[in-house]
Specification:
It comes from Bacteriovorax antarcticus. By secondary structure, the chain is α/β, with parallel strands linked by helices. Helix content is 52%, strand content 16%. A four-stranded mixed β-sheet has the order 1-2-3-4, with helices on one face. Helix 3 runs parallel beside helix 5.
Length: 110
């Protein structure tokens, strides 16, 4: 039982796959803006040409994803303190804009 608990705890990350093509961005665990992009690219299998910036994020989400993709952001206030309010607003806007252009992308804020 202890082994299962340790394994479950070790699997908790700043980005956790919720379901196929879905990811949780946990504000308590995110370290930097670069960390956000690196983990999104990894968890959502972005191409190696992904530019790790907001423009590239929008482009990838709005055009390259053909499967249902849910991006859930949790602990917004903590993320804003770590990444800056302006950057968080821009990140949310980029994902929101992509979801309008690609109905397969869904943004959930918690």
């Amino acid at each position: 039982m202890k082994t299962a608990v340790v394994a479950a705890v070790s699997m908790l990350m700043s980005f956790q796959v919720l379901a196929s093509g879905s990811v949780l961005i946990n504000g308590k665990e995110v370290k930097s803006q670069e960390h956000v992009h690196t983990m999104l690219a990894k968890q959502l299998n972005f191409s190696s040409s992904y530019g790790k910036n907001l423009d590239s994020l929008y482009d990838t989400l709005s055009t390259d994803l053909s499967n249902q993709t849910v991006i859930k952001i949790k602990y917004l206030s903590i993320l804003k303190s770590k990444l800056g309010a302006d950057y968080m607003d821009a990140l949310i806007q980029a994902i929101s804009d992509a979801s309008q252009d690609n109905p397969k992308v869904v943004l959930l804020l918690e």
